[in-house]
Design a protein that fits this description.
Layout (H helix, E strand, L loop, with lengths): L2 E5 L5 H9 L3 E7 L3 H10 L5 E4 L1 H6 L8 E5 L12 E5 L11 H7 L4 E8 L9 E8 L6 H21 L32 H11 L6 E5 L2 E9 L8 H4 L6 E5 L2 E5 L5 E9 L2 E4 H6 L14
Parallel strand pairs: 1-2, 1-4, 2-3, 4-5
Antiparallel strand pairs: 5-6, 6-7, 8-9, 9-12, 10-11, 11-12, 12-13
Helix pairs in contact: 1-5, 4-6
Length: 299
Protein backbone atom coordinates (compact mmCIF):
# COMPACT_ATOMS: atom_id res chain seq x y z
CA UNK A 1 0.00 0.00 0.00
CA UNK A 2 1.26 3.48 -0.91
CA UNK A 3 -0.02 6.60 0.85
CA UNK A 4 0.32 10.30 0.12
CA UNK A 5 -0.20 12.77 2.98
CA UNK A 6 -1.18 16.43 2.57
CA UNK A 7 -0.46 18.65 5.57
CA UNK A 8 0.69 22.06 6.77
CA UNK A 9 1.15 21.26 10.44
CA UNK A 10 3.69 19.63 12.75
CA UNK A 11 0.68 18.08 14.48
CA UNK A 12 0.66 15.55 11.62
CA UNK A 13 4.16 14.27 12.49
CA UNK A 14 2.95 11.24 14.53
CA UNK A 15 0.77 10.14 11.60
CA UNK A 16 3.57 10.71 9.08
CA UNK A 17 5.99 8.77 11.29
CA UNK A 18 3.59 5.83 11.75
CA UNK A 19 2.82 5.44 8.04
CA UNK A 20 6.50 5.83 7.18
CA UNK A 21 7.50 3.12 9.69
CA UNK A 22 5.07 0.76 7.99
CA UNK A 23 6.82 1.53 4.67
CA UNK A 24 3.64 2.94 3.14
CA UNK A 25 4.53 6.64 2.84
CA UNK A 26 5.30 7.60 -0.75
CA UNK A 27 4.95 11.40 -0.81
CA UNK A 28 4.09 14.43 1.36
CA UNK A 29 2.26 17.48 0.02
CA UNK A 30 2.73 20.76 1.90
CA UNK A 31 0.92 24.03 1.30
CA UNK A 32 3.07 26.70 -0.32
CA UNK A 33 3.00 28.89 2.81
CA UNK A 34 4.70 26.24 4.98
CA UNK A 35 8.22 26.11 3.57
CA UNK A 36 9.67 25.73 7.08
CA UNK A 37 7.67 22.51 7.55
CA UNK A 38 9.14 21.17 4.30
CA UNK A 39 12.64 21.81 5.65
CA UNK A 40 11.82 19.99 8.91
CA UNK A 41 10.40 16.98 7.06
CA UNK A 42 13.44 16.85 4.77
CA UNK A 43 15.55 16.40 7.88
CA UNK A 44 13.08 14.07 9.61
CA UNK A 45 12.54 11.63 6.72
CA UNK A 46 14.80 12.67 3.83
CA UNK A 47 14.06 9.50 1.87
CA UNK A 48 10.39 10.52 1.38
CA UNK A 49 9.88 13.32 -1.18
CA UNK A 50 7.80 16.35 -0.26
CA UNK A 51 6.69 19.29 -2.36
CA UNK A 52 5.03 22.64 -1.89
CA UNK A 53 1.78 23.19 -3.78
CA UNK A 54 -0.59 26.12 -4.26
CA UNK A 55 -4.34 26.26 -3.73
CA UNK A 56 -4.98 26.03 -7.47
CA UNK A 57 -2.59 23.09 -7.85
CA UNK A 58 -4.33 21.22 -5.03
CA UNK A 59 -7.69 21.48 -6.82
CA UNK A 60 -6.31 19.91 -9.98
CA UNK A 61 -3.87 17.41 -8.47
CA UNK A 62 -4.32 13.90 -9.79
CA UNK A 63 -3.81 10.78 -7.71
CA UNK A 64 -1.61 8.31 -9.64
CA UNK A 65 -2.63 4.67 -9.76
CA UNK A 66 0.60 3.84 -7.91
CA UNK A 67 -0.75 5.68 -4.84
CA UNK A 68 -3.55 3.81 -3.10
CA UNK A 69 -4.70 6.50 -0.66
CA UNK A 70 -4.35 10.21 -0.09
CA UNK A 71 -4.79 11.54 3.46
CA UNK A 72 -5.45 15.20 4.21
CA UNK A 73 -4.40 16.11 7.76
CA UNK A 74 -4.30 19.77 8.74
CA UNK A 75 -4.11 20.80 5.08
CA UNK A 76 -5.68 24.22 4.39
CA UNK A 77 -6.42 23.76 0.68
CA UNK A 78 -9.22 21.81 -0.91
CA UNK A 79 -7.93 18.69 -2.65
CA UNK A 80 -9.40 17.13 -5.74
CA UNK A 81 -11.43 14.16 -4.50
CA UNK A 82 -10.71 10.72 -5.93
CA UNK A 83 -13.62 8.37 -5.31
CA UNK A 84 -12.94 6.45 -2.08
CA UNK A 85 -9.19 7.02 -2.15
CA UNK A 86 -8.91 10.41 -0.42
CA UNK A 87 -9.51 10.67 3.33
CA UNK A 88 -9.66 13.70 5.61
CA UNK A 89 -8.73 13.87 9.30
CA UNK A 90 -11.15 16.26 11.00
CA UNK A 91 -10.75 17.24 14.67
CA UNK A 92 -14.46 17.68 15.24
CA UNK A 93 -17.69 15.71 15.37
CA UNK A 94 -19.39 15.35 12.00
CA UNK A 95 -21.79 16.45 10.77
CA UNK A 96 -22.40 18.69 13.82
CA UNK A 97 -19.06 20.53 13.71
CA UNK A 98 -18.09 21.21 10.11
CA UNK A 99 -15.60 23.89 9.16
CA UNK A 100 -11.88 24.70 9.10
CA UNK A 101 -11.31 25.20 12.85
CA UNK A 102 -13.49 22.75 14.80
CA UNK A 103 -11.26 22.68 17.89
CA UNK A 104 -11.62 26.41 18.44
CA UNK A 105 -15.41 26.19 18.54
CA UNK A 106 -15.32 23.00 20.63
CA UNK A 107 -13.23 24.69 23.32
CA UNK A 108 -15.08 28.02 23.13
CA UNK A 109 -18.37 26.19 23.73
CA UNK A 110 -16.91 24.46 26.79
CA UNK A 111 -17.41 20.95 25.46
CA UNK A 112 -16.05 18.09 27.55
CA UNK A 113 -15.36 15.79 24.59
CA UNK A 114 -13.24 16.43 21.49
CA UNK A 115 -13.92 14.23 18.47
CA UNK A 116 -11.75 12.87 15.69
CA UNK A 117 -13.63 12.06 12.49
CA UNK A 118 -12.04 10.27 9.55
CA UNK A 119 -14.17 10.73 6.46
CA UNK A 120 -14.01 10.41 2.71
CA UNK A 121 -13.17 13.66 0.96
CA UNK A 122 -15.81 14.91 -1.49
CA UNK A 123 -16.55 18.07 -3.44
CA UNK A 124 -18.39 19.55 -0.42
CA UNK A 125 -16.39 20.36 2.70
CA UNK A 126 -16.60 17.82 5.54
CA UNK A 127 -19.56 16.01 4.01
CA UNK A 128 -18.14 12.66 2.86
CA UNK A 129 -19.00 9.30 4.33
CA UNK A 130 -17.72 8.77 7.87
CA UNK A 131 -15.24 5.93 8.29
CA UNK A 132 -14.37 6.44 11.96
CA UNK A 133 -15.60 8.71 14.77
CA UNK A 134 -14.14 8.68 18.28
CA UNK A 135 -14.41 11.03 21.23
CA UNK A 136 -11.69 11.93 23.73
CA UNK A 137 -12.01 13.73 27.06
CA UNK A 138 -10.83 17.33 27.27
CA UNK A 139 -8.83 17.90 30.46
CA UNK A 140 -9.60 20.90 32.70
CA UNK A 141 -7.58 23.87 31.48
CA UNK A 142 -6.51 22.14 28.27
CA UNK A 143 -5.93 24.79 25.61
CA UNK A 144 -6.04 24.66 21.82
CA UNK A 145 -2.34 23.90 21.41
CA UNK A 146 -2.29 21.04 23.91
CA UNK A 147 -5.51 19.50 22.63
CA UNK A 148 -4.47 19.82 18.99
CA UNK A 149 -1.19 18.00 19.69
CA UNK A 150 -2.96 15.32 21.74
CA UNK A 151 -5.42 14.59 18.95
CA UNK A 152 -2.51 14.49 16.49
CA UNK A 153 -1.29 11.42 18.38
CA UNK A 154 -4.68 9.87 19.09
CA UNK A 155 -5.79 9.99 15.44
CA UNK A 156 -3.00 7.65 14.29
CA UNK A 157 -4.68 4.28 15.05
CA UNK A 158 -7.94 5.56 13.58
CA UNK A 159 -6.31 6.51 10.29
CA UNK A 160 -4.34 3.27 10.08
CA UNK A 161 -7.51 1.27 10.62
CA UNK A 162 -9.28 3.20 7.86
CA UNK A 163 -6.40 2.60 5.45
CA UNK A 164 -6.67 -1.16 5.96
CA UNK A 165 -10.33 -1.04 5.00
CA UNK A 166 -11.48 -2.53 8.31
CA UNK A 167 -14.27 0.04 8.70
CA UNK A 168 -17.92 0.54 7.76
CA UNK A 169 -18.59 3.76 5.82
CA UNK A 170 -21.64 5.70 7.03
CA UNK A 171 -23.44 8.55 5.27
CA UNK A 172 -23.74 11.80 7.21
CA UNK A 173 -27.14 12.97 8.42
CA UNK A 174 -27.54 16.35 6.72
CA UNK A 175 -30.34 17.33 9.09
CA UNK A 176 -27.71 17.52 11.87
CA UNK A 177 -25.13 19.43 9.83
CA UNK A 178 -23.78 22.71 11.15
CA UNK A 179 -20.90 24.73 9.67
CA UNK A 180 -18.63 26.95 11.75
CA UNK A 181 -16.45 29.52 9.93
CA UNK A 182 -12.77 30.24 10.44
CA UNK A 183 -12.57 32.35 13.62
CA UNK A 184 -11.41 35.92 13.26
CA UNK A 185 -9.60 38.27 15.64
CA UNK A 186 -12.99 39.56 16.79
CA UNK A 187 -13.91 36.08 18.00
CA UNK A 188 -11.01 36.32 20.48
CA UNK A 189 -12.41 39.44 22.18
CA UNK A 190 -13.70 39.19 25.75
CA UNK A 191 -17.03 40.87 26.45
CA UNK A 192 -17.00 41.46 30.20
CA UNK A 193 -20.51 42.89 30.27
CA UNK A 194 -22.13 39.72 28.95
CA UNK A 195 -19.78 36.75 29.44
CA UNK A 196 -19.79 34.45 32.46
CA UNK A 197 -16.52 33.48 34.14
CA UNK A 198 -16.56 29.94 32.69
CA UNK A 199 -17.29 31.31 29.21
CA UNK A 200 -14.23 33.56 29.43
CA UNK A 201 -12.10 30.64 30.65
CA UNK A 202 -13.32 28.59 27.66
CA UNK A 203 -12.49 31.45 25.28
CA UNK A 204 -8.99 31.85 26.73
CA UNK A 205 -8.30 28.13 26.24
CA UNK A 206 -9.65 28.27 22.67
CA UNK A 207 -7.43 31.25 21.81
CA UNK A 208 -4.13 29.90 23.13
CA UNK A 209 -1.98 29.87 21.07
CA UNK A 210 -3.82 30.62 17.79
CA UNK A 211 -4.70 34.20 18.77
CA UNK A 212 -2.02 34.46 21.45
CA UNK A 213 -4.79 34.48 24.03
CA UNK A 214 -8.18 36.12 24.49
CA UNK A 215 -8.10 39.88 24.02
CA UNK A 216 -9.19 42.69 26.32
CA UNK A 217 -8.13 46.27 27.18
CA UNK A 218 -7.19 48.36 30.20
CA UNK A 219 -5.83 51.88 30.53
CA UNK A 220 -6.03 52.20 26.74
CA UNK A 221 -3.73 49.21 26.16
CA UNK A 222 -4.39 45.78 24.71
CA UNK A 223 -3.72 42.72 26.86
CA UNK A 224 -4.13 39.02 26.06
CA UNK A 225 -5.16 36.50 28.70
CA UNK A 226 -3.29 33.20 28.21
CA UNK A 227 -4.27 31.24 31.29
CA UNK A 228 -7.18 31.81 33.67
CA UNK A 229 -9.32 29.73 35.98
CA UNK A 230 -12.88 30.19 37.19
CA UNK A 231 -12.67 28.95 40.82
CA UNK A 232 -15.55 27.06 42.35
CA UNK A 233 -14.76 28.27 45.87
CA UNK A 234 -14.34 32.03 46.28
CA UNK A 235 -16.00 34.17 48.91
CA UNK A 236 -17.21 37.51 47.52
CA UNK A 237 -18.09 40.59 49.54
CA UNK A 238 -21.05 42.79 48.72
CA UNK A 239 -18.70 45.51 47.50
CA UNK A 240 -17.05 43.05 45.11
CA UNK A 241 -20.42 41.79 43.85
CA UNK A 242 -21.53 45.35 43.09
CA UNK A 243 -18.51 46.17 40.97
CA UNK A 244 -18.78 46.53 37.20
CA UNK A 245 -17.93 43.32 35.27
CA UNK A 246 -14.27 43.47 34.27
CA UNK A 247 -13.20 45.13 37.51
CA UNK A 248 -10.24 43.80 39.50
CA UNK A 249 -11.62 42.64 42.86
CA UNK A 250 -8.45 41.08 44.27
CA UNK A 251 -4.79 41.88 43.76
CA UNK A 252 -2.74 40.30 46.54
CA UNK A 253 -0.84 37.16 47.55
CA UNK A 254 -3.99 35.12 46.84
CA UNK A 255 -3.96 36.06 43.17
CA UNK A 256 -5.34 38.52 40.63
CA UNK A 257 -9.12 38.20 40.34
CA UNK A 258 -11.71 39.89 38.09
CA UNK A 259 -15.49 39.98 38.54
CA UNK A 260 -17.49 38.71 35.55
CA UNK A 261 -21.03 39.25 34.27
CA UNK A 262 -22.35 36.24 36.22
CA UNK A 263 -21.03 37.79 39.45
CA UNK A 264 -18.37 35.09 39.67
CA UNK A 265 -14.60 35.70 39.83
CA UNK A 266 -11.94 34.81 37.30
CA UNK A 267 -8.33 34.31 38.39
CA UNK A 268 -5.71 35.55 35.89
CA UNK A 269 -2.63 33.31 35.96
CA UNK A 270 -0.79 34.38 32.79
CA UNK A 271 -1.22 37.36 30.44
CA UNK A 272 0.68 38.90 27.53
CA UNK A 273 1.30 42.56 26.75
CA UNK A 274 3.50 44.37 24.30
CA UNK A 275 6.28 44.32 26.88
CA UNK A 276 6.19 40.54 27.42
CA UNK A 277 4.41 37.61 29.08
CA UNK A 278 3.64 38.00 32.78
CA UNK A 279 2.20 36.00 35.65
CA UNK A 280 -0.70 37.36 37.65
CA UNK A 281 1.63 38.13 40.58
CA UNK A 282 3.97 39.99 38.23
CA UNK A 283 1.09 42.11 36.95
CA UNK A 284 0.24 43.00 40.55
CA UNK A 285 3.85 43.99 41.16
CA UNK A 286 3.67 46.17 38.03
CA UNK A 287 0.77 48.12 39.49
CA UNK A 288 -2.38 46.28 38.39
CA UNK A 289 -4.69 46.74 41.36
CA UNK A 290 -8.32 47.08 42.40
CA UNK A 291 -8.58 50.46 40.69
CA UNK A 292 -8.25 48.76 37.29
CA UNK A 293 -11.24 47.76 35.17
CA UNK A 294 -10.87 45.83 31.94
CA UNK A 295 -12.84 47.24 29.02
CA UNK A 296 -14.68 45.67 26.10
CA UNK A 297 -13.57 46.42 22.56
CA UNK A 298 -15.79 48.80 20.63
CA UNK A 299 -17.89 47.10 17.94
Amino acid sequence: MNVRIATSSLVSLPLIKAIHEQHHLSEILIDENSARLAEILNGFIPQVPNRLISRDEALELELPEAIDFQVSSGFPFKLKPHANRTLNVHFGELPENRGPAPLFWTLKAGRKIAYITIHELTESYDSGRILSLKGHSILPGENFGLLNSKLGNLCVPQVLQCLTGDVHAKEQDESLAKFYPMPTEKDSHINWLSMASTSIENLVNACNPIFNGAKTRFNGMNISLLEVVAPEQFQLTNDQLNKRPGSIIQANQNGLAVICADKRPLIINVAAMHEGIFSGSKLIAMGVNEQVCFADFEN
